What we know:
Layout: E1 9-10, H1 22-31, E2 36-37, H2 49-60
Parallel strand pairs: 1-2
Helix pairs in contact: 1-2
Amino acid sequence: MPVDKLRFGTAGIPLSTKPYNTLNGIARVKELGLDSMELEFVRSINVGKKRSKQEAHNRCC
């Protein structure tokens, strides 16, 4: 993918996210006008594929 611009985001879920979880964090990043959010799943992934696609779409788009 060509780099056409700098993208700015948070290192993890924004602290202003309520309730504080990954899916709400994705929506909060968009509300803040940012381009990305670093996701770090060190020990486990707590969001299944089906739910992640549905929830991310519902909250972000």
